[in-house]
Write a structure and sequence with these properties.
The complex is a heterodimer of chains A (402) and B (714). Chain A is α+β, with helices and mostly antiparallel strands and 402 residues long. In chain A, 37% of the residues lie in helices and 18% in strands. Classes of the chains: A alpha+beta (402), B alpha/beta (714).
């Protein structure tokens, strides 16, 4: 590697319910991202002409998120016209993929300073609005044994024997940790409030978290994927997992990632440019990896991705102090724990997407910031961020606090 | 070539084209292409002098569809281009017809299925003769094909996806009334004259007729894929069809794909995609097997196994002995076919109960609007429930359907055989007992035959006719005719314990039991049973048959061994397990549960205790081995039946396996499976399985010989 990819800062917007009664519903995607870019600029009085590129994940890039929302946001933010922008889609990994690509750009020595992040206003551009051959085109869906991912999550729980009680307990714990972290101010460094044109605050802190959630309070929620499964998707999944008698549908709105609006931005650059601009590095990107696993169950990618990135870095699970495993569904981090033996005490110590939400294109970049914040707060060294991804993919990144 | 498309112009300048091809039916082949293109050419040339066209047929059927014999010859990797070009050519002619600029009306005087209905779709208007012989629809999917003459694209364009999707995916055949309700035809006429008059009247009233998809700004009714409801409907069909096909047959998926394309691209492009789809399907093994099944069905139903030179007969009065589950079903199907039925049991009460079953079924039909009260009363009136032997006097057929017990059956034969009319036939409904043995007390063993019905009798389409040692050809012919009279498909087998179907069926159950004993997970066995295309897994089948019956059959077999002075056959796994299950109060579905629990109002679930008995996490077999064991076991047993002379021919075996025991239809049946697999490859695999799992997979000599001679099962 020719040079280190250093993290100079990682910021995000607060997250809020991705429906019309969510606090951020009134904010356009381009403004959410542009606002965050300028928050970052203002924090360091950044000369934006030194930024080579803005890489932004966005999973439903149609309508007002279409036509390269990254470059559109750069223009709307009034950044120097030399700054480029690119939008990318690696499903739920898009935000972390943006970080990884930015790191690779820096490490290769071909660029010096890049903003990586993402945006997803799920209240304004609903999930699935971009269609796609995988689930909608009969020939493709049939050839690839496509099933909606919630059924994959339920299948993981069935295979591993996680009961409804188990997944609900995990979800309640996520809520408890997230509320405690927010209230203790652990997210204050990263979260830049969303403001209107007048400078009035629209939303200051995460407001999706539901403190006080318990296993009992979740018990009344109906399984979300039972009906879809009964339409035939369960049978498709079982054709690949014939050892399973019946899929237990344990996931519901309360133990799955929340649908929210939000954006994230991570400033990544070389050591040299940091010195030139007077920036102090907070972290270093050690290694990145993507992989892919069986696509019908779809959500088992994190453990293999983590193994791959550890091997690349010459490290082991024991070397990592904190893990962020995206809580797409409760069974995903639970499977990560089962598959790797990493204790729950090291996984998602400040809660995750079940409590705070999963703005698809931004989440990976958010987790990078959350992990770095906590490494600093605890004085620890290494963190590993990983997400399950559509198509069976997995992504992982190791960061080091510096 | 002597076929013609007659061309007649009347005084109103309306041309009637009457299709009259050289074969027994009008069909889509080279002759059709020649005749149709000449006709279209002439119509185009004379366009200015004609007012419109009526297209009709000189045959009993309007038009029969594709030429299956020809399609069976198509070779993968070689004939696709020719098939594609042929589809395009056929479509080109129909496109010219519909763009003639003059109204074209189909006067549908007979069945118009598949290609026949595709021709109708290219017309501007359809008038059908109100006759039970007229069936309409696009059943290509049942042959593993798709409608490649514009059927998918035109039906979707005409009706919209909501109405078109199920008829296309399921290949629904419509009668005239239903076809009109579904929008497949516009008008109905009671006589051929009226049909022609209506066709011509429509032409006069619509001189500018055109199909809507040829108009500018055409929109598919109900919208295209940009409409979220339409997109959802297409997407919703994906898991539904996979649930049905289990991914084993490609045609439904391909049809859905063409539907989706029709909803995305323009008419002409969609037509081209449709042609490519048919070209791709024709050469698939599944299509070949389904077409082969269709041809062999015709062979079987055409009397392939019925002795030649004996006049066709019809039963007028049938006696059914025993009003239990089988007897009541036999009474019902017989009465429904217009036969007078004496349903006899030992008490009037039992006989009445048996008749009540028919009443229940008929009431259901009336409630669903499928039958009138009069018809119901007429059918019920044909059944007399009785406890008196006198009522059997003069029956030209008596079917005995009492318990599977040799002594009981002997006693009844002795007692009631004299009631038969002169030269009447005695049929025994047994699923296992040798007919020759049952015929022992008969005064006329030449008139004694086995007629094995399947349960439930009213639903199962097959009858297995068993010829005893002394059964005469005439008796066989009469039993065969009776089976057809009650609209069942008869296969003919020779006497043996378990005959063909029960014997082969038993191996599926037994292999499931063996896999259980070996420590495999019950769920895995069941799911792989379904994955190979069996209707349900072997454990579910055992529950339906019931563990109790398995025990009984086994006891009967021991008894038969004893009678024959033979060593008892070795104990089967199915028997061992059934005994243990019964000891634990698990006698089968009808006895409160077996391998499964059957919670009221809920789905059945595997009985958890079963795993505790045998399941061993450490045991793991390749899934392909498990699948092959479940299939090959049945096939090898069928080969033994063939070798032993229980089976006489390949079509009866293929048809019997699919219709009697649910062998996967896309395989074409037990022997067609071997053809598709490749004879030598099948032998090799049998040897592998035999080595690994036991001699029950050892290939019989008959198979080795066929493989050596490279002689397919035909």
């Amino acid at each position: 590697m020719s040079q280190s990819a250093l993290i100079y800062d990682a910021v995000r917007t607060p997250r809020s319910k991705g429906k019309k009664d969510g606090s951020l519903h009134e904010v356009k995607p381009v403004d959410l991202l542009a606002g965050l870019l300028n928050g970052l600029r203002d924090r360091y009085e950044l000369d934006t002409s030194r930024v080579d590129d803005v890489v932004a994940g966005c999973v439903v890039p149609v309508g007002e998120q279409g036509a390269c929302v990254a470059k559109t946001a750069v223009m709307k933010a009034g950044w120097d016209e030399s700054v480029a922008g690119v939008q990318l889609d690696r499903f739920c990994a898009s935000g972390l993929e943006a970080v990884n690509i930015a790191a690779q750009k820096i490490a290769s020595g071909w660029e010096d300073l890049v903003v990586a992040g993402g945006v997803e206003c799920m209240s304004r551009v609903p999930m699935g609005a971009n269609g796609g051959a995988w689930g909608e085109d009969p020939a493709t869906a049939i050839d690839t044994a496509f099933v909606p991912q919630g059924i994959g999550a339920d299948l993981i729980a069935t295979l591993d024997g996680y009961s409804r009680q188990d997944v609900d307990a995990f979800a309640a714990e996520s809520q408890r940790k997230a509320a405690a972290a927010r209230d203790a101010g652990y997210f204050d460094r990263s979260v830049i409030p969303v403001r209107d044109d007048n400078g009035l605050v629209i939303l200051e802190k995460d407001d999706f978290i539901k403190p006080g959630t318990t296993v009992e309070s979740l018990a009344g929620l109906k399984p979300s994927f039972e009906f879809l499964g009964s339409l035939g998707y369960d049978d498709i999944a079982l054709s690949k997992y014939p050892q399973v008698a019946k899929i237990q549908h344990v996931h519901h709105a309360g133990n799955s990632s929340g649908i929210v609006d939000g954006a994230a931005a991570v400033l990544i650059g070389s050591e040299k440019i940091g010195k030139e601009l007077g920036l102090t590095p907070r972290g270093r990107i050690v290694a990145t990896a993507v992989t892919s696993t069986e696509p019908t169950i779809m959500l088992t990618g994190p453990a293999p991705a983590a193994r791959k990135v550890l091997a690349r870095a010459g490290m082991s699970f024991d070397d990592i102090d904190l893990f962020e495993v995206n809580e797409a569904f409760a069974s995903v981090p639970m499977r990560f724990h089962t598959a790797t033996g990493v204790p729950f005490e090291k996984i998602n110590v400040n809660g995750g997407a079940i409590a705070m939400g999963h703005p698809l294109g931004a989440t990976g970049a958010m987790l990078t910031g959350t992990c770095l914040d906590e490494l600093e707060r605890r004085g620890l060294r290494y963190g590993l961020i990983t997400l399950c991804v559509g198509g069976g993919m997995g992504i992982a990144t190791i960061i080091e606090r510096v | 070539m002597t076929g013609q498309f007659h061309y007649e112009k009347d005084s109103d300048n309306i041309v009637t084209v009457t299709m009259d091809m050289s074969g027994p039916v009008n069909a889509m082949n080279d002759e059709y292409i020649e005749l149709m293109s000449a006709t279209v050419e002439r119509l185009e040339k004379e366009r200015d002098d004609i007012a419109g066209v009526v297209l009709t047929s000189a045959k009993k059927t309007f038009f029969a569809g594709g030429d299956i014999k020809n399609m069976l010859k198509a070779e993968p990797g070689k004939d696709e281009e020719g098939l594609f070009l042929m589809c395009e050519e056929i479509k080109g002619m129909l496109a010219k017809l519909e763009k003639l600029g003059k109204p074209v009306v189909a006067a549908i005087n007979g069945a118009a299925l598949g290609g026949g209905y595709e021709i109708c779709l290219a017309c501007h208007h359809r008038v059908a003769l109100n006759s039970s012989a007229v069936q309409l629809g696009l059943p290509e999917v049942s042959l593993g094909l798709l409608p490649g003459g514009g059927g998918i694209v035109r039906l979707v364009s005409k009706l919209g996806v909501e109405k078109a999707i199920m008829p296309l995916l399921e290949g629904t055949r419509f009668n005239v009334a239903k076809a009109q309700a579904a929008g497949l035809i516009e008008e109905v006429a009671d006589t051929p004259e009226e049909m022609m008059a209506k066709a011509k009247a429509w032409i006069k009233a619509n001189p500018e007729a055109n199909n809507p998809w040829n108009e500018k700004g055409f929109k598919i009714p109900g919208g295209d894929m940009r409409n979220p409801n339409v997109a959802q409907m297409v997407q919703g069909a994906i898991p539904m069809l996979l649930q049905k096909t289990r991914g084993l047959v490609p045609a439904p998926a391909r049809i859905l794909d063409v539907i989706a394309n029709t909803l995305r691209v323009d008419f002409d492009t969609a037509m081209r995609i449709e042609s490519r789809g048919l070209a791709a399907l024709v050469t698939t093994p599944q299509a070949k097997n389904l077409m082969n099944f269709f041809m062999q069905m015709n062979q079987v139903n055409g009397g392939g196994s019925r002795p030649k030179g004996i006049d066709k007969t019809a039963v007028k009065k049938v006696g059914v002995l025993g009003a239990g589950m089988m007897g009541q079903g036999i009474a019902y199907v017989s009465a429904k076919a217009g036969i007078e039925v004496m349903l006899k049991d030992i008490s009037q009460e039992a006989a009445d109960k048996g008749k009540a079953y028919s009443e229940k079924l008929l009431e259901k039909a009336v409630a669903k609007g499928r039958m009138s009260e009069e018809k119901k009363a007429g059918i019920l009136g044909l059944i007399k429930a009785t406890a008196s032997a006198e009522d059997l006097q003069g029956c030209d057929l008596i079917i005995e359907a009492v318990f599977e017990n040799v002594d009981l059956k002997h006693k009844i034969t002795k007692e009631l055989e004299p009631m038969l009319a002169d030269n009447g036939v005695w049929g025994s409904n047994t699923s296992t007992l040798p007919i020759t043995l049952l015929a022992e007390p008969s005064q006329k063993p030449e008139n004694f035959i086995g007629i094995h019905f399947f349960s439930p009798v009213d639903k199962m389409p097959l009858v297995e006719i068993i010829v005893g040692e002394k059964t005469s050809d005439e008796t066989l012919a009469r039993a065969f005719d009776y089976a057809q009279q009650i609209r069942k498909t008869p296969i003919v087998v020779n006497d043996s314990r378990g005959f063909f179907t029960s014997r082969v069926f038993g191996t599926y159950i037994d292999e499931g039991a063996l896999l259980i004993e070996e420590g495999l997970s019950p769920a895995l066995i069941e799911n792989l049973g379904k994955a190979i295309g069996m209707p349900v897994g072997p454990l579910a089948v055992q529950d339906e048959v019931s563990q109790q019956l398995t025990i009984k059959v086994n006891e009967t077999n021991r008894d038969l061994d004893e009678r024959a002075g033979q060593e008892p056959a070795p104990e089967t796994a199915a028997y061992r397990l059934a005994r243990r299950m019964i000891d634990n109060g698990r006698g089968g579905r009808a006895h409160g549960g077996g391998y499964y629990d059957y919670p009221e109002g809920g789905e059945k679930e595997l009985w958890p205790e079963l795993e505790n008995w045998f399941y061993n996490k450490g045991v793991s077999l390749p899934q392909q081995d498990i699948k092959d064991r479940l299939l090959f076991r049945q096939i090898v047993e069928s080969l033994r039946c063939f070798e032993e002379g229980v089976m006489n021919n390949v079509p009866d075996s293929n048809i019997g396996s699919i219709m009697g025991i649910g062998f996967p239809p896309h395989t074409g049946g037990v022997f067609q499976f071997i053809n598709t697999y490749g004879l030598q490859a099948f032998v090799d695999r049998c040897n592998e399985l035999s080595e690994k799992y036991g001699e029950r997979f050892t290939p019989p000599q008959l198979l080795l010989d066929k493989a050596k001679n490279k002689e397919n099962f035909a």
